[in-house]
Specification:
The chain is an alpha+beta fold and 480 residues long. 51% of the residues lie in helices and 19% in strands.
Amino acid sequence: MRRMTLKLKLTLLYTFFMVLLTCAALAILFSLSSREILASVQAKLEHRVQESLDDLRLQDGELRLDLDFYSVTQDVYLSVYDESQYFLYGKVPYGFDLQPEISDGQLQRIKDRGREWYVYDISFRLSSDRTVYVRGVTSVTDAEESFRVTLRFALILLPMMVLATALIGYRFTRRTLLPVKKITWTVQKIRADADLSRRIGLTAPRRRTGKGALMDTEKKDEKMAESRDEIYALAETFDDMLSELEEVFNREKQFTSDVSHELRTPVSVILAQCDMLLDDESLSEQQKEGVCLIRKKAGGMADMISQLLFLSRADQGRQAAVMERLNLSELTEMVVEEQQILSEAEGRGIRVTSQIQPEVLAWADETFYIRILVNLISNARRFSYENGEVTVTLVSDGIQVKGTVVDHGTGIPPEALPHIWERFYCADPSRSGENHSGLGLSMVKWMVQAHGGSVSAESREGEGSRFTFCFPIDQKPQEV
């Protein structure tokens, strides 16, 4: 199951808590609002009834009411009853058919056929011997219905609020994580291209153009640092780390180059002295065997130093590929014949065969191309069983050249396959041979990439390996 991205997780988390907070706030608000509405209805009813007492007066022994008494204000209906609870004047709301007993100064909540009413009675003494009761009636159901309309409207708006919250949260999270995306992209490009000169570049580089300018720059950096968040600080730290790593690797490359140059001369002297000693007839056979062993080891060191110098120049951009139009079919056939001769000299019975498409023309560096084939075929011969076979193929589809070197030997363990292109890596040192330095495949990879192509390997332990390289034929690659 595919894991959710951090952007989606943060959006969902943000939306969840915002919806939870909104729902909690609405629940509290509606709970308090329901109580407030009922309390407001009660207060309006009591106030209206008490206010209506000013509209009552006794004139010539009869009860007189102002016209304002009959008006329905704030949904409150007023009526007047005598001491025997007989209806005298006023209005009664439609649907209110009950005649509850008068309860002076008490608020009653009455249900009638699915509707609820507030009834408030208050006595009023017109004279020493006459008292009337003023009753106010208002609908609780109508007030609650208005609240329910508001509630339904809020419930309709809630999904829209959730969607808006999710969209805003997604955009906010996406914008916040853009630096993280750039950091990830930079790291992936560094891994793919092995280019430590890349930088994330979220912060402006520091410019050192003088003491005064440096102080101004440092002040600006301090102000910018205060406004940056943790991600920008991480990116800046990462850039600083890349700068330090690049410097360390550059020093390592320079050290490798310097050491290789320094070792080249003494190894050459050792080889020359060994050749001179081997020409001396006064040496015994045992002494000559010792000199031959020294010369063999020195020759292996010379080959390794040559490979190190090649890779060092390649790392420093000083190993240029000289591109020219070549007949790769003829070159491949020549290398195969040479490798067959070397295989026969070893006496292991290994055959080097070829399946080469004729007249394959492409832009290539002749020296590099020959070394690619020699390294791959010699490796295949080294790891083949006795009386085995190494097959070299070369084809072209008019767009690119594709070459393969296949053996049926010991193969490469699955855990070692991703590391075979690393320098000095040996999948099994006990089977690599005395003069195998672990630099050959690194050189092959660099030379194929110098042609604008790629190289890959497939292998099964105990069954053999297949190395495949390809590069374009009609477009001249840039010189490396």
